[in-house]
Amino acid sequence: LIEGKLTMKHTNIIIVAIIFLTLANQVIGQTFQRTYGSTSDDQGSKILLTFDNNYAIIGTYGTTGGIYLIKADSIGNSIWQKTFNPPNMLYFHYDYSFKQTQDSGFIIAGSVYYTNGSGIDICLIKTNSSGDTLWTKFYAGPNPGYYKAIAYEIINTSDNGYAIVGTEIGSTNKNVFLIKTDNSGNLQWSKYYGGTNNDEGYSLKQTSDGGYIIAGYTNSFGQGGWDVYLLKVNSTGNLLWTKTYGGNRYDYANHIEITNDGGFILTGVTSGYGTGVIYDNDLFLMKTDSAGNSIWANTYGGDSNEIGTSVKQTSDGGFVATGYTSSSGAGQEDVYLLKTDSLGNVLWSTNFGGASTEQGKDVIQHGNNYIIVGETRNFSKGLKDVYLIKVDSLGNDSCKQDTAITFKTLLPWIQGTGGTENSGNTVKSNIIVFGNPDTTSYKPCVCVPPIANFQAYMTHACGQMWNYSTWATSWYWDFGNGDTSTVESPNYCWWNDDVYYVCLTVTNDCGTDTYCDSIPIFTGINELKNNRIKLFIAPNPFDNYTVVKFENTKREKLKLQILNPLGQSVLQINNITDNKVQIEKNGLPSGLYFVQLIKNNQVIGLDKIIIK
Q: Less Cβ around it within 10 Å: N or C end of the chain?
Protein backbone atom coordinates (compact mmCIF):
# COMPACT_ATOMS: atom_id res chain seq x y z
CA LEU A 1 0.00 0.00 0.00
CA ILE A 2 3.04 2.24 -0.15
CA GLU A 3 2.70 4.24 -3.32
CA GLY A 4 5.67 4.09 -5.61
CA LYS A 5 6.86 3.34 -9.11
CA LEU A 6 9.55 0.92 -10.13
CA THR A 7 10.12 0.43 -13.87
CA MET A 8 12.59 -2.10 -15.23
CA LYS A 9 12.93 -2.91 -18.90
CA HIS A 10 14.52 -6.08 -20.09
CA THR A 11 15.02 -6.83 -23.76
CA ASN A 12 15.69 -10.27 -25.10
CA ILE A 13 15.58 -11.48 -28.69
CA ILE A 14 13.85 -14.85 -28.85
CA ILE A 15 13.81 -17.31 -31.71
CA VAL A 16 10.19 -18.20 -32.38
CA ALA A 17 9.63 -21.89 -33.09
CA ILE A 18 6.67 -22.71 -35.34
CA ILE A 19 5.33 -25.22 -32.82
CA PHE A 20 2.01 -24.97 -31.05
CA LEU A 21 2.16 -25.86 -27.36
CA THR A 22 -0.98 -26.49 -25.31
CA LEU A 23 -0.64 -25.17 -21.78
CA ALA A 24 -3.02 -25.91 -18.93
CA ASN A 25 -4.29 -22.91 -17.01
CA GLN A 26 -3.18 -22.78 -13.38
CA VAL A 27 -5.29 -21.16 -10.73
CA ILE A 28 -3.02 -19.27 -8.34
CA GLY A 29 -4.28 -17.72 -5.11
CA GLN A 30 -2.69 -14.31 -5.50
CA THR A 31 -2.02 -12.42 -2.29
CA PHE A 32 -2.46 -8.69 -1.87
CA GLN A 33 -3.31 -5.75 0.37
CA ARG A 34 -6.03 -3.35 -0.82
CA THR A 35 -7.87 -0.33 0.54
CA TYR A 36 -11.28 1.10 -0.36
CA GLY A 37 -12.87 4.33 0.70
CA SER A 38 -13.32 8.06 0.41
CA THR A 39 -11.58 11.06 1.91
CA SER A 40 -13.66 10.61 5.08
CA ASP A 41 -13.89 7.83 7.70
CA ASP A 42 -14.49 4.36 6.18
CA GLN A 43 -14.17 0.98 7.89
CA GLY A 44 -14.67 -2.71 7.09
CA SER A 45 -16.67 -4.96 9.43
CA LYS A 46 -17.42 -8.33 7.78
CA ILE A 47 -16.39 -10.29 4.68
CA LEU A 48 -17.89 -13.30 2.94
CA LEU A 49 -17.12 -15.48 -0.06
CA THR A 50 -19.86 -15.00 -2.65
CA PHE A 51 -21.47 -17.75 -4.71
CA ASP A 52 -19.37 -16.68 -7.74
CA ASN A 53 -16.08 -16.98 -5.77
CA ASN A 54 -15.62 -13.25 -5.32
CA TYR A 55 -15.64 -11.26 -2.07
CA ALA A 56 -18.32 -9.09 -0.51
CA ILE A 57 -17.49 -6.62 2.27
CA ILE A 58 -19.77 -4.70 4.62
CA GLY A 59 -18.57 -1.69 6.55
CA THR A 60 -19.17 2.00 7.17
CA TYR A 61 -18.51 5.16 5.22
CA GLY A 62 -18.38 8.77 6.32
CA THR A 63 -18.41 10.35 9.74
CA THR A 64 -22.07 9.42 10.32
CA GLY A 65 -21.43 5.72 9.83
CA GLY A 66 -23.47 5.05 6.68
CA ILE A 67 -23.50 1.46 5.42
CA TYR A 68 -20.80 0.63 2.85
CA LEU A 69 -21.25 -2.51 0.67
CA ILE A 70 -18.39 -3.59 -1.64
CA LYS A 71 -18.15 -6.42 -4.18
CA ALA A 72 -14.56 -7.27 -5.18
CA ASP A 73 -13.01 -9.98 -7.34
CA SER A 74 -10.58 -12.63 -6.12
CA ILE A 75 -7.57 -10.29 -6.47
CA GLY A 76 -9.27 -7.38 -4.75
CA ASN A 77 -10.40 -5.32 -7.75
CA SER A 78 -13.65 -3.49 -7.00
CA ILE A 79 -16.61 -4.79 -9.04
CA TRP A 80 -19.11 -2.36 -7.52
CA GLN A 81 -19.63 -0.29 -4.37
CA LYS A 82 -22.88 0.89 -2.74
CA THR A 83 -23.71 3.15 0.18
CA PHE A 84 -26.91 3.38 2.24
CA ASN A 85 -28.12 6.31 4.33
CA PRO A 86 -31.90 6.94 4.38
CA PRO A 87 -33.23 10.47 4.94
CA ASN A 88 -34.01 11.71 8.46
CA MET A 89 -31.77 9.00 9.93
CA LEU A 90 -28.11 8.50 10.70
CA TYR A 91 -26.67 5.01 10.77
CA PHE A 92 -25.48 4.72 14.31
CA HIS A 93 -23.41 1.59 14.91
CA TYR A 94 -20.21 0.57 13.20
CA ASP A 95 -20.47 -3.24 13.49
CA TYR A 96 -22.73 -3.93 10.53
CA SER A 97 -23.37 -7.53 9.56
CA PHE A 98 -24.59 -9.22 6.39
CA LYS A 99 -25.09 -12.53 4.60
CA GLN A 100 -25.62 -13.52 1.00
CA THR A 101 -29.13 -14.79 0.28
CA GLN A 102 -30.34 -17.62 -1.95
CA ASP A 103 -31.13 -15.19 -4.80
CA SER A 104 -27.46 -14.02 -4.76
CA GLY A 105 -28.48 -10.74 -3.13
CA PHE A 106 -27.56 -9.62 0.38
CA ILE A 107 -29.32 -9.10 3.71
CA ILE A 108 -27.79 -6.36 5.88
CA ALA A 109 -28.38 -5.66 9.58
CA GLY A 110 -27.52 -2.33 11.16
CA SER A 111 -28.79 0.33 13.53
CA VAL A 112 -30.26 3.75 12.77
CA TYR A 113 -30.40 6.86 14.89
CA TYR A 114 -33.43 9.06 14.26
CA THR A 115 -32.39 12.68 13.86
CA ASN A 116 -35.58 13.80 15.64
CA GLY A 117 -34.23 12.21 18.83
CA SER A 118 -36.83 9.42 19.07
CA GLY A 119 -34.23 6.71 19.61
CA ILE A 120 -32.24 3.99 17.88
CA ASP A 121 -33.75 1.03 16.03
CA ILE A 122 -32.41 -2.05 14.30
CA CYS A 123 -32.75 -1.90 10.53
CA LEU A 124 -32.79 -4.71 7.97
CA ILE A 125 -31.95 -4.04 4.32
CA LYS A 126 -32.47 -6.52 1.47
CA THR A 127 -30.58 -5.98 -1.79
CA ASN A 128 -30.33 -7.71 -5.14
CA SER A 129 -27.09 -9.21 -6.48
CA SER A 130 -25.91 -5.77 -7.63
CA GLY A 131 -26.39 -4.19 -4.20
CA ASP A 132 -29.55 -2.26 -5.10
CA THR A 133 -32.06 -1.93 -2.25
CA LEU A 134 -35.22 -4.06 -2.55
CA TRP A 135 -36.75 -3.31 0.85
CA THR A 136 -35.93 -1.96 4.32
CA LYS A 137 -37.48 -2.83 7.70
CA PHE A 138 -37.04 -1.37 11.20
CA TYR A 139 -37.41 -3.03 14.62
CA ALA A 140 -37.58 -1.56 18.11
CA GLY A 141 -36.75 -3.32 21.35
CA PRO A 142 -39.61 -5.38 22.88
CA ASN A 143 -39.04 -4.33 26.47
CA PRO A 144 -41.09 -1.27 27.63
CA GLY A 145 -38.84 1.62 28.54
CA TYR A 146 -36.01 0.49 26.28
CA TYR A 147 -35.47 3.12 23.61
CA LYS A 148 -32.37 1.80 21.83
CA ALA A 149 -31.84 -1.42 19.87
CA ILE A 150 -28.47 -2.21 18.26
CA ALA A 151 -27.77 -5.08 15.83
CA TYR A 152 -24.46 -6.96 15.87
CA GLU A 153 -24.90 -10.07 13.69
CA ILE A 154 -27.44 -11.45 11.23
CA ILE A 155 -27.71 -15.02 9.92
CA ASN A 156 -29.78 -16.91 7.38
CA THR A 157 -32.04 -19.44 9.10
CA SER A 158 -33.03 -22.94 8.01
CA ASP A 159 -36.61 -21.82 7.21
CA ASN A 160 -35.27 -19.23 4.72
CA GLY A 161 -35.77 -16.38 7.17
CA TYR A 162 -33.34 -14.29 9.21
CA ALA A 163 -32.22 -13.99 12.83
CA ILE A 164 -30.49 -10.96 14.35
CA VAL A 165 -28.67 -10.71 17.66
CA GLY A 166 -27.91 -7.44 19.37
CA THR A 167 -28.57 -5.34 22.42
CA GLU A 168 -31.51 -3.37 23.74
CA ILE A 169 -30.48 -0.41 25.87
CA GLY A 170 -32.55 1.14 28.62
CA SER A 171 -31.95 3.94 31.07
CA THR A 172 -30.26 1.67 33.63
CA ASN A 173 -29.09 -1.53 31.90
CA LYS A 174 -28.67 -3.53 28.70
CA ASN A 175 -30.12 -6.88 27.59
CA VAL A 176 -29.23 -9.44 24.93
CA PHE A 177 -31.78 -9.03 22.13
CA LEU A 178 -32.77 -11.72 19.57
CA ILE A 179 -35.07 -11.10 16.58
CA LYS A 180 -36.54 -13.68 14.18
CA THR A 181 -38.10 -12.63 10.85
CA ASP A 182 -39.42 -14.35 7.76
CA ASN A 183 -37.87 -14.05 4.29
CA SER A 184 -39.57 -10.69 3.71
CA GLY A 185 -38.36 -9.19 6.98
CA ASN A 186 -41.69 -9.51 8.78
CA LEU A 187 -41.17 -9.91 12.52
CA GLN A 188 -42.06 -13.41 13.80
CA TRP A 189 -40.84 -13.06 17.37
CA SER A 190 -38.27 -11.25 19.53
CA LYS A 191 -36.76 -12.10 22.92
CA TYR A 192 -34.43 -10.48 25.41
CA TYR A 193 -32.15 -12.16 27.96
CA GLY A 194 -30.09 -11.02 30.91
CA GLY A 195 -30.14 -9.80 34.47
CA THR A 196 -30.29 -6.51 36.29
CA ASN A 197 -26.97 -5.17 34.99
CA ASN A 198 -25.50 -5.01 31.50
CA ASP A 199 -25.61 -8.04 29.18
CA GLU A 200 -24.94 -7.93 25.42
CA GLY A 201 -25.04 -10.41 22.55
CA TYR A 202 -22.39 -9.95 19.86
CA SER A 203 -22.47 -13.15 17.79
CA LEU A 204 -25.10 -15.67 16.69
CA LYS A 205 -25.28 -19.04 14.90
CA GLN A 206 -28.11 -21.48 14.27
CA THR A 207 -27.54 -24.97 15.69
CA SER A 208 -28.43 -28.32 14.13
CA ASP A 209 -31.57 -28.64 16.30
CA GLY A 210 -33.02 -25.44 14.81
CA GLY A 211 -32.19 -23.38 17.88
CA TYR A 212 -29.54 -20.70 18.34
CA ILE A 213 -26.27 -20.15 20.18
CA ILE A 214 -25.41 -16.58 21.28
CA ALA A 215 -22.08 -15.25 22.55
CA GLY A 216 -21.34 -11.94 24.21
CA TYR A 217 -20.73 -10.75 27.75
CA THR A 218 -22.58 -10.48 31.05
CA ASN A 219 -22.20 -8.06 33.92
CA SER A 220 -25.15 -9.61 35.75
CA PHE A 221 -23.71 -13.10 36.29
CA GLY A 222 -20.28 -14.71 36.61
CA GLN A 223 -17.05 -13.93 38.41
CA GLY A 224 -15.85 -10.45 37.57
CA GLY A 225 -16.70 -7.13 36.03
CA TRP A 226 -17.64 -8.79 32.73
CA ASP A 227 -17.67 -12.47 31.87
CA VAL A 228 -18.02 -14.30 28.58
CA TYR A 229 -21.73 -15.08 28.18
CA LEU A 230 -22.94 -18.12 26.21
CA LEU A 231 -26.68 -18.67 25.72
CA LYS A 232 -28.48 -21.59 24.07
CA VAL A 233 -32.11 -21.08 23.02
CA ASN A 234 -34.58 -23.24 21.10
CA SER A 235 -36.14 -22.53 17.70
CA THR A 236 -38.67 -20.10 19.21
CA GLY A 237 -36.14 -18.25 21.36
CA ASN A 238 -36.90 -19.91 24.70
CA LEU A 239 -33.81 -20.11 26.89
CA LEU A 240 -32.39 -23.65 27.36
CA TRP A 241 -29.14 -22.95 29.20
CA THR A 242 -26.48 -20.31 29.81
CA LYS A 243 -22.79 -20.43 30.70
CA THR A 244 -20.34 -17.82 31.92
CA TYR A 245 -16.54 -17.94 31.71
CA GLY A 246 -13.94 -15.56 33.06
CA GLY A 247 -11.76 -14.19 35.79
CA ASN A 248 -12.18 -11.32 38.18
CA ARG A 249 -12.03 -8.46 35.67
CA TYR A 250 -13.21 -8.11 32.07
CA ASP A 251 -13.74 -10.97 29.63
CA TYR A 252 -16.08 -10.96 26.65
CA ALA A 253 -16.69 -12.89 23.42
CA ASN A 254 -16.87 -11.09 20.08
CA HIS A 255 -17.48 -14.08 17.81
CA ILE A 256 -18.66 -17.68 17.89
CA GLU A 257 -18.64 -20.45 15.27
CA ILE A 258 -19.98 -24.00 15.30
CA THR A 259 -17.16 -26.54 14.93
CA ASN A 260 -17.12 -29.77 12.94
CA ASP A 261 -17.79 -31.86 16.06
CA GLY A 262 -20.94 -29.89 16.93
CA GLY A 263 -19.23 -27.84 19.64
CA PHE A 264 -18.26 -24.18 19.57
CA ILE A 265 -15.16 -22.00 19.15
CA LEU A 266 -15.16 -18.48 20.60
CA THR A 267 -12.79 -15.54 20.42
CA GLY A 268 -12.73 -12.22 22.21
CA VAL A 269 -10.87 -10.42 24.97
CA THR A 270 -9.66 -11.32 28.44
CA SER A 271 -7.97 -8.99 30.94
CA GLY A 272 -6.36 -9.32 34.33
CA TYR A 273 -4.36 -12.48 33.61
CA GLY A 274 -2.74 -11.51 30.33
CA THR A 275 0.76 -11.86 29.03
CA GLY A 276 1.85 -8.26 29.54
CA VAL A 277 1.41 -5.69 32.26
CA ILE A 278 -1.35 -6.70 34.65
CA TYR A 279 -4.84 -5.85 33.42
CA ASP A 280 -3.79 -5.52 29.79
CA ASN A 281 -6.03 -7.29 27.30
CA ASP A 282 -5.29 -10.51 25.43
CA LEU A 283 -7.02 -12.31 22.59
CA PHE A 284 -8.48 -15.64 23.66
CA LEU A 285 -9.75 -18.76 21.92
CA MET A 286 -12.04 -21.16 23.76
CA LYS A 287 -13.28 -24.53 22.51
CA THR A 288 -16.41 -26.03 24.10
CA ASP A 289 -18.58 -29.05 23.53
CA SER A 290 -22.18 -28.78 22.32
CA ALA A 291 -23.36 -28.20 25.92
CA GLY A 292 -21.01 -25.27 26.45
CA ASN A 293 -18.52 -27.12 28.64
CA SER A 294 -15.00 -25.76 28.16
CA ILE A 295 -12.57 -28.23 26.54
CA TRP A 296 -9.62 -25.86 26.25
CA ALA A 297 -9.04 -22.11 26.37
CA ASN A 298 -5.88 -20.24 25.35
CA THR A 299 -4.82 -16.61 25.33
CA TYR A 300 -2.47 -15.04 22.80
CA GLY A 301 -0.65 -11.75 22.93
CA GLY A 302 2.33 -9.61 23.73
CA ASP A 303 3.14 -7.01 26.36
CA SER A 304 0.15 -4.75 25.67
CA ASN A 305 -3.33 -5.25 24.21
CA GLU A 306 -4.64 -7.88 21.80
CA ILE A 307 -8.31 -8.00 20.81
CA GLY A 308 -9.93 -11.02 19.12
CA THR A 309 -12.72 -10.14 16.68
CA SER A 310 -13.27 -13.20 14.45
CA VAL A 311 -12.42 -16.91 14.35
CA LYS A 312 -13.10 -19.67 11.80
CA GLN A 313 -12.37 -23.38 11.75
CA THR A 314 -10.01 -24.17 8.88
CA SER A 315 -9.99 -27.08 6.44
CA ASP A 316 -7.20 -28.82 8.41
CA GLY A 317 -9.35 -28.88 11.56
CA GLY A 318 -7.46 -26.02 13.21
CA PHE A 319 -8.49 -22.39 13.60
CA VAL A 320 -7.63 -18.98 12.18
CA ALA A 321 -8.40 -15.82 14.15
CA THR A 322 -7.96 -12.12 13.57
CA GLY A 323 -8.14 -8.96 15.63
CA TYR A 324 -5.62 -6.26 16.47
CA THR A 325 -2.57 -5.72 18.66
CA SER A 326 -0.76 -2.78 20.24
CA SER A 327 2.13 -4.75 21.75
CA SER A 328 5.75 -3.60 21.58
CA GLY A 329 7.17 -2.92 18.13
CA ALA A 330 3.83 -2.62 16.40
CA GLY A 331 2.16 0.63 15.43
CA GLN A 332 -0.49 2.13 17.62
CA GLU A 333 -2.57 -0.88 16.56
CA ASP A 334 -1.88 -3.53 13.91
CA VAL A 335 -3.99 -6.22 12.31
CA TYR A 336 -3.27 -9.50 14.15
CA LEU A 337 -3.63 -12.87 12.37
CA LEU A 338 -3.24 -16.15 14.22
CA LYS A 339 -3.26 -19.79 13.01
CA THR A 340 -3.55 -22.69 15.45
CA ASP A 341 -4.00 -26.44 15.36
CA SER A 342 -7.19 -28.14 16.59
CA LEU A 343 -6.05 -27.80 20.23
CA GLY A 344 -5.25 -24.11 20.01
CA ASN A 345 -1.47 -24.53 19.78
CA VAL A 346 0.12 -21.72 17.76
CA LEU A 347 1.29 -22.69 14.26
CA TRP A 348 2.10 -19.13 13.20
CA SER A 349 1.01 -15.55 13.79
CA THR A 350 1.66 -12.31 11.95
CA ASN A 351 0.90 -8.58 12.00
CA PHE A 352 -0.02 -6.09 9.26
CA GLY A 353 0.18 -2.33 9.45
CA GLY A 354 2.27 0.79 9.75
CA ALA A 355 3.03 3.34 12.42
CA SER A 356 -0.58 4.36 13.03
CA THR A 357 -3.76 2.26 13.41
CA GLU A 358 -4.95 -0.89 11.64
CA GLN A 359 -7.56 -3.35 12.91
CA GLY A 360 -8.69 -6.76 11.68
CA LYS A 361 -12.44 -7.30 12.03
CA ASP A 362 -13.25 -10.55 10.17
CA VAL A 363 -11.44 -13.46 8.51
CA ILE A 364 -12.45 -16.23 6.10
CA GLN A 365 -10.66 -19.10 4.37
CA HIS A 366 -10.74 -19.38 0.56
CA GLY A 367 -8.90 -22.44 -0.70
CA ASN A 368 -5.38 -22.22 0.73
CA ASN A 369 -5.68 -18.50 1.40
CA TYR A 370 -6.97 -16.42 4.31
CA ILE A 371 -8.70 -13.09 3.71
CA ILE A 372 -8.96 -10.43 6.42
CA VAL A 373 -11.06 -7.28 6.35
CA GLY A 374 -10.74 -4.36 8.72
CA GLU A 375 -9.66 -0.74 8.73
CA THR A 376 -6.48 1.25 8.17
CA ARG A 377 -5.43 4.76 9.07
CA ASN A 378 -1.86 4.48 7.69
CA PHE A 379 -2.78 3.68 4.10
CA SER A 380 -6.05 5.58 3.76
CA LYS A 381 -7.15 8.36 1.43
CA GLY A 382 -8.89 10.07 4.35
CA LEU A 383 -9.29 9.44 8.07
CA LYS A 384 -9.66 5.66 7.64
CA ASP A 385 -10.22 3.22 4.77
CA VAL A 386 -11.55 -0.31 4.46
CA TYR A 387 -8.52 -2.64 4.60
CA LEU A 388 -8.51 -5.98 2.72
CA ILE A 389 -5.62 -8.44 3.07
CA LYS A 390 -5.21 -11.80 1.33
CA VAL A 391 -2.43 -14.11 2.53
CA ASP A 392 -1.26 -17.62 1.70
CA SER A 393 -1.52 -20.68 3.95
CA LEU A 394 1.41 -19.47 6.07
CA GLY A 395 0.22 -15.90 6.47
CA ASN A 396 2.50 -14.43 3.78
CA ASP A 397 1.43 -11.82 1.27
CA SER A 398 3.09 -9.45 -1.21
CA CYS A 399 3.94 -7.21 1.74
CA LYS A 400 6.36 -9.22 3.88
CA GLN A 401 6.68 -8.85 7.64
CA ASP A 402 8.05 -10.74 10.62
CA THR A 403 6.14 -13.09 12.86
CA ALA A 404 3.92 -11.36 15.39
CA ILE A 405 4.65 -11.18 19.08
CA THR A 406 3.34 -14.13 21.10
CA PHE A 407 4.19 -14.61 24.77
CA LYS A 408 3.48 -17.43 27.23
CA THR A 409 1.06 -17.17 30.13
CA LEU A 410 -1.25 -19.23 32.33
CA LEU A 411 -4.78 -17.97 32.91
CA PRO A 412 -7.15 -19.65 35.40
CA TRP A 413 -10.67 -18.97 34.14
CA ILE A 414 -13.79 -19.87 36.09
CA GLN A 415 -16.73 -21.48 34.29
CA GLY A 416 -20.19 -20.97 35.74
CA THR A 417 -23.84 -20.65 34.79
CA GLY A 418 -25.74 -17.51 33.85
CA GLY A 419 -29.38 -16.54 33.98
CA THR A 420 -29.27 -17.00 37.72
CA GLU A 421 -26.50 -16.07 40.10
CA ASN A 422 -23.48 -18.38 39.86
CA SER A 423 -24.08 -21.37 42.12
CA GLY A 424 -20.37 -21.78 42.85
CA ASN A 425 -19.71 -24.87 40.72
CA THR A 426 -16.49 -24.03 38.89
CA VAL A 427 -14.21 -25.56 36.29
CA LYS A 428 -10.71 -24.16 35.84
CA SER A 429 -9.38 -23.88 32.29
CA ASN A 430 -5.63 -23.64 31.82
CA ILE A 431 -5.06 -20.93 29.26
CA ILE A 432 -1.62 -21.15 27.68
CA VAL A 433 0.14 -19.37 24.86
CA PHE A 434 3.35 -20.65 23.30
CA GLY A 435 6.06 -18.19 22.34
CA ASN A 436 9.47 -16.75 23.22
CA PRO A 437 9.57 -13.19 24.52
CA ASP A 438 13.38 -13.13 24.31
CA THR A 439 13.67 -13.72 20.57
CA THR A 440 10.44 -12.49 19.02
CA SER A 441 10.64 -9.16 17.19
CA TYR A 442 8.55 -7.01 14.93
CA LYS A 443 9.53 -5.07 11.84
CA PRO A 444 7.44 -2.61 9.84
CA CYS A 445 5.94 -4.04 6.69
CA VAL A 446 8.17 -3.85 3.60
CA CYS A 447 6.11 -3.46 0.44
CA VAL A 448 7.21 -5.69 -2.45
CA PRO A 449 6.79 -4.37 -6.02
CA PRO A 450 5.94 -6.79 -8.84
CA ILE A 451 8.44 -8.32 -11.28
CA ALA A 452 7.29 -8.54 -14.90
CA ASN A 453 8.08 -11.55 -17.08
CA PHE A 454 6.44 -13.46 -19.92
CA GLN A 455 7.12 -16.02 -22.64
CA ALA A 456 5.60 -16.13 -26.13
CA TYR A 457 4.64 -19.56 -27.50
CA MET A 458 4.09 -19.07 -31.24
CA THR A 459 2.42 -20.94 -34.08
CA HIS A 460 2.78 -19.13 -37.40
CA ALA A 461 1.70 -15.54 -36.77
CA CYS A 462 -0.27 -16.32 -33.59
CA GLY A 463 0.79 -17.14 -30.09
CA GLN A 464 -0.01 -17.51 -26.42
CA MET A 465 1.48 -14.68 -24.37
CA TRP A 466 2.07 -16.52 -21.11
CA ASN A 467 2.46 -14.32 -18.03
CA TYR A 468 5.20 -15.40 -15.59
CA SER A 469 5.22 -12.23 -13.47
CA THR A 470 5.33 -12.35 -9.67
CA TRP A 471 3.37 -10.27 -7.15
CA ALA A 472 1.33 -8.64 -9.94
CA THR A 473 -2.34 -7.75 -9.53
CA SER A 474 -2.93 -6.15 -12.96
CA TRP A 475 -1.45 -6.61 -16.44
CA TYR A 476 -1.14 -4.32 -19.49
CA TRP A 477 0.11 -5.73 -22.81
CA ASP A 478 1.38 -3.61 -25.71
CA PHE A 479 1.74 -5.78 -28.84
CA GLY A 480 3.90 -3.26 -30.69
CA ASN A 481 1.33 -2.39 -33.35
CA GLY A 482 -1.11 -0.23 -31.40
CA ASP A 483 -3.12 -3.15 -29.98
CA THR A 484 -3.29 -3.66 -26.20
CA SER A 485 -4.84 -6.07 -23.70
CA THR A 486 -5.39 -6.31 -19.94
CA VAL A 487 -5.91 -10.09 -19.94
CA GLU A 488 -3.39 -11.92 -17.76
CA SER A 489 -2.21 -14.38 -20.47
CA PRO A 490 -3.80 -13.43 -23.80
CA ASN A 491 -3.75 -15.09 -27.22
CA TYR A 492 -2.76 -12.77 -30.06
CA CYS A 493 -2.19 -12.86 -33.85
CA TRP A 494 -0.14 -10.51 -36.04
CA TRP A 495 -1.11 -10.18 -39.72
CA ASN A 496 2.05 -8.68 -41.23
CA ASP A 497 5.69 -9.71 -41.38
CA ASP A 498 7.76 -7.60 -38.99
CA VAL A 499 9.66 -7.62 -35.69
CA TYR A 500 7.28 -6.52 -32.94
CA TYR A 501 8.46 -5.06 -29.63
CA VAL A 502 5.98 -6.58 -27.16
CA CYS A 503 5.86 -5.17 -23.62
CA LEU A 504 4.07 -6.36 -20.48
CA THR A 505 3.58 -3.81 -17.68
CA VAL A 506 2.46 -5.19 -14.32
CA THR A 507 1.38 -3.37 -11.18
CA ASN A 508 0.42 -3.92 -7.57
CA ASP A 509 -0.09 -1.60 -4.61
CA CYS A 510 3.69 -1.31 -4.22
CA GLY A 511 4.83 -0.37 -7.73
CA THR A 512 5.13 -1.10 -11.45
CA ASP A 513 7.49 -3.14 -13.64
CA THR A 514 7.81 -3.62 -17.41
CA TYR A 515 9.33 -6.49 -19.39
CA CYS A 516 9.74 -6.42 -23.21
CA ASP A 517 10.67 -8.96 -25.89
CA SER A 518 11.28 -8.54 -29.61
CA ILE A 519 9.13 -11.08 -31.46
CA PRO A 520 9.87 -11.60 -35.18
CA ILE A 521 6.76 -12.55 -37.15
CA PHE A 522 7.33 -14.36 -40.45
CA THR A 523 4.27 -15.70 -42.20
CA GLY A 524 6.08 -16.38 -45.47
CA ILE A 525 3.25 -14.73 -47.36
CA ASN A 526 5.29 -11.93 -48.87
CA GLU A 527 8.12 -14.23 -50.01
CA LEU A 528 5.75 -16.77 -51.50
CA LYS A 529 3.86 -14.06 -53.30
CA ASN A 530 7.11 -12.94 -54.91
CA ASN A 531 8.62 -16.33 -55.73
CA ARG A 532 5.70 -18.73 -56.20
CA ILE A 533 2.34 -18.99 -57.91
CA LYS A 534 0.11 -16.00 -57.34
CA LEU A 535 -3.36 -16.72 -55.95
CA PHE A 536 -6.34 -14.64 -57.05
CA ILE A 537 -9.12 -14.77 -54.44
CA ALA A 538 -12.54 -13.17 -54.89
CA PRO A 539 -14.61 -12.19 -53.08
CA ASN A 540 -12.34 -11.64 -50.10
CA PRO A 541 -13.60 -11.12 -47.41
CA PHE A 542 -16.63 -13.35 -48.11
CA ASP A 543 -19.86 -14.53 -46.49
CA ASN A 544 -20.76 -17.93 -47.99
CA TYR A 545 -18.09 -18.86 -50.53
CA THR A 546 -15.09 -17.57 -52.45
CA VAL A 547 -13.16 -18.72 -55.54
CA VAL A 548 -9.39 -19.21 -55.60
CA LYS A 549 -7.79 -18.98 -59.06
CA PHE A 550 -4.21 -19.83 -59.99
CA GLU A 551 -1.99 -20.86 -62.92
CA ASN A 552 -2.14 -24.62 -63.75
CA THR A 553 -1.59 -24.91 -67.52
CA LYS A 554 -0.21 -28.46 -67.26
CA ARG A 555 -3.28 -29.65 -65.33
CA GLU A 556 -1.11 -31.07 -62.56
CA LYS A 557 -2.70 -32.57 -59.46
CA LEU A 558 -2.64 -29.96 -56.72
CA LYS A 559 -3.93 -29.75 -53.15
CA LEU A 560 -5.48 -26.73 -51.45
CA GLN A 561 -5.45 -26.45 -47.66
CA ILE A 562 -7.04 -23.91 -45.29
CA LEU A 563 -5.33 -23.22 -41.93
CA ASN A 564 -6.71 -21.34 -38.93
CA PRO A 565 -4.51 -18.77 -37.10
CA LEU A 566 -3.07 -21.53 -34.89
CA GLY A 567 -1.79 -23.41 -37.95
CA GLN A 568 -4.42 -26.15 -37.72
CA SER A 569 -5.91 -27.52 -40.94
CA VAL A 570 -9.66 -26.87 -41.10
CA LEU A 571 -10.32 -27.72 -44.77
CA GLN A 572 -8.47 -29.72 -47.44
CA ILE A 573 -9.31 -30.23 -51.14
CA ASN A 574 -7.27 -32.90 -53.00
CA ASN A 575 -6.61 -33.85 -56.65
CA ILE A 576 -7.28 -30.44 -58.14
CA THR A 577 -6.51 -30.40 -61.91
CA ASP A 578 -8.37 -27.22 -62.78
CA ASN A 579 -7.05 -23.66 -62.38
CA LYS A 580 -9.64 -22.65 -59.83
CA VAL A 581 -11.45 -24.05 -56.80
CA GLN A 582 -14.46 -22.85 -54.80
CA ILE A 583 -14.20 -22.66 -51.01
CA GLU A 584 -17.42 -22.95 -49.02
CA LYS A 585 -17.80 -21.46 -45.56
CA ASN A 586 -19.40 -24.71 -44.30
CA GLY A 587 -19.79 -23.55 -40.71
CA LEU A 588 -16.28 -22.16 -40.31
CA PRO A 589 -16.17 -19.35 -37.72
CA SER A 590 -15.64 -15.80 -38.86
CA GLY A 591 -12.03 -14.67 -38.90
CA LEU A 592 -8.68 -14.87 -40.66
CA TYR A 593 -7.42 -18.03 -42.42
CA PHE A 594 -4.37 -18.99 -44.48
CA VAL A 595 -4.76 -20.60 -47.94
CA GLN A 596 -1.98 -22.97 -49.07
CA LEU A 597 -1.64 -24.37 -52.60
CA ILE A 598 0.47 -27.53 -52.39
CA LYS A 599 2.30 -29.59 -55.05
CA ASN A 600 4.27 -32.72 -54.13
CA ASN A 601 4.10 -31.74 -50.43
CA GLN A 602 5.63 -28.32 -51.19
CA VAL A 603 3.75 -25.06 -50.69
CA ILE A 604 3.75 -23.29 -54.05
CA GLY A 605 1.15 -20.63 -53.26
CA LEU A 606 0.05 -18.88 -50.08
CA ASP A 607 -2.37 -16.09 -49.23
CA LYS A 608 -4.98 -15.02 -46.67
CA ILE A 609 -8.77 -15.11 -46.66
CA ILE A 610 -11.24 -13.53 -44.27
CA ILE A 611 -14.64 -15.04 -43.50
CA LYS A 612 -17.18 -12.44 -42.43
A: C
